[in-house]
Amino acid sequence: MSDERERFISEESELKRIRDKKLAELRERKAEMTGGPVHLTDASFNETVKKQSVSMVDFWASWCGPCLALAPTIEELAKEYGGKVFVGKLNVDENPKTAECFQVYSIPTMVIMKNGQEADRIVGCAQKKIIVAALEKYLG
Q1: What is the pTM of this model?
Q2: Burial class (CB in 10 A: 0-12, 13-18, 19+), 65
């Protein structure tokens, strides 16, 4: 009986992992089609960001006032830089492993990556022109 239970639990966790991965892929496709930022998770982060030559990830939380104030700017940048810069958002409360890996201790934090490696970082509710200047350094 114990072996059967362990197999069931193992299969259940595998199904959850597959479902989470598929959901992340669907969210990514939807964001690409609408021109908005892609919502990333701990599970999808590495695989998604490594595919991009230049990417910017906004580390945020739903309770963070400055994060919410910055959100429209992130949306605009995702649309304006579509096809040139991958723009993602990662909720630090729901995805603590990635936030810890990047040592994000203050939010909002935008991490700019070139070929999957951190190249630059902006902490705080920065003006759009500051973010644009940082992104332009890594394009072309």
Answers
A1: 0.76
A2: exposed
Tokens 């630090």, residue located: 92
**51-83 residue pLDDT tens:** 899 999 999 999 999 999 999 999 999 999 988
Task: Return the active site residues.
Answer: 64, 67
Return d(Cα 22, Cα 58) in angstroms, integer: 22
Bridge partners, 60 (sequence order): 91
Percent of residues in the chain assigned helix, strand, coil, to nearest 5? 50, 20, 30
Residue 111: give the domain boundaries.
2-137
Assign residue 66 the CATH number of its domain.
Answer: 3.40.30.10
Tens of pLDDT, residue by residue over 38-52, are 999 999 999 999 889
Question: How far apart are the C-alpha atoms of 140 and 137, rounded to whole Å?
Answer: 8
Provide the domain count of the chain: 1
